[in-house]
Amino acid sequence: MNQVNARKATWRAPELEKKDIRPAYRWTGPGKDGLEVVYGTANSKPNTTTIREIWKKRHGHRAAPLLVMVSYSDRGQRRAVVCGPAGDDPPVVYMDYERAERLADAALSEPDRHLALRFLAETLEGEPDEHLGLRNKGLLATHELLHGVPQRPDWKDATDRSKPLLNRRGQDLVRELGYEIEQKAQHSVLRSSGGKAQAVAVFLQESEQPDQPAARFENQTPVTYALAHADRDNIPWVVAERSGVLRLYSTSTSGAPGQRGRAETFVELNLPLLPSDQAGYLDLLFSSRALAEDGTISQIQQASSIYTSELSERLRERVYKQVVPRLAVAVADRVGGTGEEDLERHYRTALTILFRLMFVAYAEDSRLLPLNVNSEYTRHALKTIARDLSNTINEGCDLGFDNPLTEEIECGADTQTDLWDSCKALFHAVNEGDVRWGVPPYNGRLFSTDPDVNPVGRIIEELSLTNAEFGPALTALIVDRSPDDVIGPIDFRSLSVREFGTIYEGLLESELSVADQPLTVDSDGVYLPARDGDSVVVQKGEVYLHNQSGVRKSTGSYFTKPFAVDHLISHSVDPTLEEHLKRVKALLDEGKEADAAEMLFDFRVADIAMGSGHFLTAVVDRLEARYTTFLADHPIPHVTRELDALRKAANDALGQLADTVEIENSSLLRRLIARRCVYGVDLNPLAVELARVGMWIHTFVPGLPLSFLDHNLAVGNSLTGIGTIEEATAELVHGVGEGSLFAEPVREELRKAEEPLRRLAKISDATTSDIAEARETAAEVERAVASVAGLFDRIVAARIGEATLPDGFSPEDLFKMNTDHAREVAERMDALHFPVAFPEVFLRDRPGFDVILGNPPWEEATVEKLGFWALRFPGLKSFSQPQQRRKIQRLERERPDIAAEYERAVADAERLRRLLLSGPYPGMGTGDPDLYKAFSWRFWNLVRQDGAVGVVLPRSALSASGSEPWRQAVLDGGTFDDVTFLLNNKHWVFPDVHPQYTVGLVSIRKGEDHAGTLRLRGPYPSHERYDAGIGEDPAEFSTESFRTWTATASFPLLPSPEAAEVFAKLRAHPRLDDENRDWRARPIRELDATKDKKHMIFQDEPPANAWPVYKGSSFDLWNPDTGEYYAWADPDCITKVLQIKRRNQQRNPRSAFSLFPLEWVNDPSTLPCLHPRIAFRDITNRTNQRTVVTALIPGELVLTNTAPYLAWPRGDSSDEAYLLGVLASIPLDWYARRFVETHVNFYILNAFPIPRPDRDDPLRNEVVKISGRDLWSARRR
Question: What DSSP assignment string belongs to 857-880?
Answer without folding.
Answer: --SBS---HHHHHHHHSTTGGGS-
